[in-house]
Amino acid sequence: MKPATLRMLTLALAGSLTLLGTAYGHGNVTPQPVDTGNLKKLGSEWLDSNPYRGDADAIRIGHSAFAQNCARCHGIDAISGGIAPDLRQLPAGEEGDAVFQGRIRHGSIRNGVTYMPPFEGILSQEAAWAIRSWLDTVHQE
């Protein structure tokens, strides 16, 4: 095979793999339901801070919800492999609550590229704060 032909085939294959990786690199990203039946209902207005901080049920539910909905990008047990931020390093307390709430509700889009989809209306406020409760337990400075 001629070098120019081989080069063209290599570039075409690399481009195809890049497209496949972009479209399918995260696998099935359909949000998974989170059973928050044991948690106090919070209503439709989003709270400014985590009402479940330290709650054992919320932490258990949050760990499961994170594994099913977040780990694909943020890593198993929130240990990022570089695709998305390491959520163990979210600021602690209410400062971190504000950052977390903004991202989980509205996602992150830069220059027209979705880095994280918005989860408001997909995950309940109870599920989101349960995830935050679990993240508090793995926090690192």
From TrEMBL:
Instruction: Report if keyword Ligase is assigned.
Output: no
Q: Where is the Cytochrome c domain?
A: 57-139
What InterPro entries has UniProt attached to this entry? c550_proteobact (IPR030991), Cyt_c-like_dom (IPR009056), Cyt_c-like_dom_sf (IPR036909), Cytochrome_c550/c551-like (IPR051811)
| Signal sequence annotation | 1-25
Gene3D superfamilies, per the entry: Cytochrome c-like domain
Q: Which GO terms describe its molecular function?
A: electron transfer activity; heme binding; metal ion binding
Q: Does the keyword Magnesium apply?
A: no
Show the coiled coil region(s).
none
> Keywords for this entry?
Electron transport, Heme, Iron, Metal-binding, Signal, Transport
Q: Which PROSITE patterns match?
A: CYTC (PS51007)
Instruction: Fetch the PANTHER family from UniProt.
Output: CYTOCHROME C-553-LIKE, MENAQUINOL-CYTOCHROME C REDUCTASE CYTOCHROME B_C SUBUNIT
Protein name as it appears in the record: Cytochrome c550
Natural source organism: Pseudogulbenkiania ferrooxidans 2002
